Amino acid sequence: MSVGVATCSPDTPLPLIAKILNDKNLDALVVLEDGEGHALGVVGQDELVQAFAAGGAEAAPVDPPARHAGLGPVRGGQA
């Protein structure tokens, strides 16, 4: 059993998010606002694919942050 929620900041590079999801066998990370720690959204495998596909593989920035991944809504609370 695991305790806690996997999170990242809005500035986390998308390749690092992909690595975390893969290494920890997760479907998504909660993106937390810097400072206050409020949930801004959820970034998961679907959002990563959409972010990379939007610009094409060659056009995708090497280090785009989570804020450019088209975050999914926070469920069960206020965003």
Structure description:
It is a single chain. This protein is of the alpha+beta class and 79 residues long. Helices cover 32% and strands 16% of the residues. It has two helices and three strands; from the N terminus they run βαββα. The chain has helices at 14-23, 45-59, and strands at 7-8, 28-32, 39-44. A three-stranded mixed beta sheet has the order 1-2-3. β2 (28-32) and β3 form a beta hairpin. The longest helix has 15 residues, at 45-59. The chain is globular, with a radius of gyration of 12 Å.
Molecular shape: globular
What is the beta-strand fraction? 15-25%
The H/E string reads: EHEEH
What is the chains' assembly state?
Answer: single chain
Distance between the termini: 27 Å
Mean pLDDT: 76
What is the alpha-carbon Rg in Å? 12 Å
The structure class reads alpha+beta
- Could you give a short account of the major beta sheet? 3 strands, mixed
Side-by-side strand order of the widest sheet: 1-2-3
Number of helices: 2
Return residue spans where pLDDT drops below 50 for at least 5 consecutive residues: 57-63
Summarize the structure.
32% of the residues lie in helices and 16% in strands.
Helix and strand arrangement:
Blueprint: E1 7-8, H1 14-23, E2 28-32, E3 39-44, H2 45-59
Brief descriptors of the model:
79 residues, alpha+beta, three-stranded mixed beta sheet, 32% helix
